[in-house]
Write a structure and sequence with these properties.
Four Helix Bundle (Hemerythrin (Met), subunit A), 7 helices
């Protein structure tokens, strides 16, 4: 009888990094094809980027030994702040130069997505981070995590974000 693979066996840091890459790549594509006359990027681009960031953080956590059960459980689940805190605790900042604008962009995306706000319409005033902050954050974070876990990443570079871009 063959051994059955478990979720722990099947859910690898490389697999999570692959999914993260695809979500971030799709976000960039959606944003670059935007033809709507607004000052914000398309909502789906923000959603895809946020999910890509979440998967990137989870790839790092999985690489550092966090179990799939923990990643899916209440402790982390879709809590980007919890994943971000744990990743920093496990040494993320030794490989990723996090700028104040990065933390601000993550926070704004998380607030926008409260109660699935990036998936379903929620009326009222919202504050969106500039895409010029979101895209570089998602890509730069993926680049360092992908290298750490042994997966490919984007071949793009960005200048350091400035305070005026926030």
């Amino acid at each position: 009888m063959q051994n059955q693979l478990t979720d722990e066996d099947r859910t690898t840091a490389i697999g999570l990094a692959r999914y993260a890459y695809e979500y971030i790549d799709a976000a960039i594509l959606v944003e670059s094809n935007d033809r709507t006359p607004t000052h914000i990027s398309p909502i789906p681009a923000y959603f895809l980027a946020l999910h890509g960031i979440e998967l990137t953080l989870k790839a790092y956590l999985r690489h550092k030994g966090v179990t799939v059960k923990e990643l899916r459980g209440k402790k982390y689940g879709h809590d980007i702040h919890a994943c971000h805190r744990k990743a920093k605790e496990l040494g993320l900042l030794s490989i990723f130069k996090e700028y104040p604008a990065d933390a601000d962009a993550i926070h704004m995306l998380v607030v926008l997505n409260e109660h699935q706000g990036l998936r379903y319409i929620k009326t009222g005033m919202k504050q969106f981070p500039l895409w010029a902050l979101v895209e570089p954050l998602a890509v730069r974070l993926h680049q360092v995590v992908a290298q750490e876990v042994g997966y490919q990443s984007f071949k793009i570079s960005y200048p350091r974000p400035t305070a005026s871009a926030a």
